[in-house]
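>> received
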Amino acid sequence: MTNKDKKSLHVKTSDRVVVIAGKDKGKIGNVKKVDLEKGRVIVEGANMVTKAQKPQPAAGIQGGLIKLEAPIDSSNVMIVCPACEKATRVEMKVIDGKKVRVCKKCGEQLDA
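>> returned
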């Protein structure tokens, strides 16, 4: 696998993001899961859908309607910079031989 084959997104798991498009525009939450293949992310408390769950007595799961987060396209979220507390784009820089994400507004590193 070469560097061109590796896929990456501007968001990672546990990043704090704001939704910038769709029915939940303006909501802020943490990224729970990232799907690199499809380019989608699951954000806590955003894009809630209702699913009909069948009961599974062997697993102890009750049936009924459950609410859960559905995936959102990664282009519809922006990272909230921990330093300046603003939604920002991400710049990739090489610092000390490591590729890190940097806030475009204040220049603060997003990767610790």
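>> The chain has no helices and ten strands.
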